[in-house]
Design a protein that fits this description.
Blueprint: H1 2-18, H2 25-28, H3 38-46, H4 51-55, E1 69-70, E2 80-81, H5 96-106, H6 121-140, H7 142-148, H8 153-160, H9 167-178, H10 197-207, H11 213-227
Antiparallel strand pairs: 1-2
Helix pairs in contact: 3-9, 3-11, 5-6, 6-11, 7-11, 8-11
Bound molecules: 2-acetamido-2-deoxy-beta-D-glucopyranose (NAG) (2 copies).
Residues 37, 39-40, 166, 169-170, 173, 186 line the site of one 2-acetamido-2-deoxy-beta-D-glucopyranose.
């Protein structure tokens, strides 16, 4: 184990000088069965993560959580934050759904809600509830399996090393693309404005892209690993 960790840290140092991902958790730990594109499945699951979302998985989650997210202010000099922030939902209304809508509409136009200037009101609504839906799905499907058969410490070291394993870069990809559009997947495919049922059928298909068991398992493993640092 010590040797393996040393190897990871060595590649990490090389990573610092080249600024390229140097640790590939999927090929280094094949028995964990991470997807080859775990950088994308995990970045998709966490890019707009919140403290409240993390508490679904471990009640100990706080504002120091080591989960990289897109900066709410996408034009900031620091496009990716080190920690997922609080969701900022209020309680003026009675149900959580209405309070989420209130929050989305109250920040409309200032483009500082983590999505940049290109999303319409309804696209913002779809995005927020899609992410909540995905987190709940991860918790309901692959999370129990990960708790039953947890990843090893070595896998967790690898998955948590987001500066070197490609995950933070992939969150950065999302941040960067929010400056110019409304990407739903990390596959760089054009998407229509969400104005009618035909457009929604494209959106729906894209939104469901990372709902596969493999993508859920990647995210569940990552969340399990990072939660060990809380
Ligand atoms: C990890 O390595 C596999 C096999 O070489 C490759 O297909 C995959 O793209 C790599 N993934 C990452 C995130 O580097
Ligand atoms: C994910 O990793 C693969 C393999 O290294 C790379 O080709 C791809 O560009 C990465 N995706 C993102 C969004 O960073």
């Amino acid at each position: 184990m010590d040797l393996l960790l040393a190897a990871l840290f060595c590649t990490s140092i090389v990573g610092l000088s080249t600024a390229k991902p140097t640790v590939n958790c999927s090929s280094t730990f094949p028995s964990t069965k991470l997807s080859p594109n775990y950088n994308e499945t995990i970045a998709h699951a966490i890019h707009s993560m919140t403290v409240e979302g993390l508490k679904l998985f471990n009640i100990k989650a706080s504002e120091i959580n080591f989960v990289p997210t897109v900066n709410q202010d996408v034009f900031s000099d620091k496009p990716v934050l080190e920690h997922a922030p609080k969701d900022g939902f209020g309680n003026d209304f009675h149900t959580s759904t209405m309070n989420v809508i209130d929050r989305i509409l109250s920040t409309l136009g200032n483009s500082k809600d983590g999505l940049g200037p290109h999303w319409s009101a309804i696209e913002r609504v779809a995005h927020v509830f899609h992410m909540q839906d995905l987190w709940e799905r991860i918790k309901a499907t692959e999370w129990p399996n990960v708790l039953k058969t947890p990843p090893s410490d070595e896998v967790c070291t690898c998955l948590s090393s987001v500066d070197f394993n490609g995950i933070k870069d992939a969150v950065g990809w999302v941040a960067n693309h929010y400056k110019t559009g409304t990407p739903i997947t990390l596959l760089n495919r054009p998407i229509p404005k969400l104005t009618d049922a035909t457009a929604w059928s494209v959106w729906k298909n894209r939104l469901l892209h990372y709902y596969t068991p493999e993508a859920m398992r990647d995210a569940a493993n990552y969340l399990y690993c990072v939660s060990k640092f809380w």
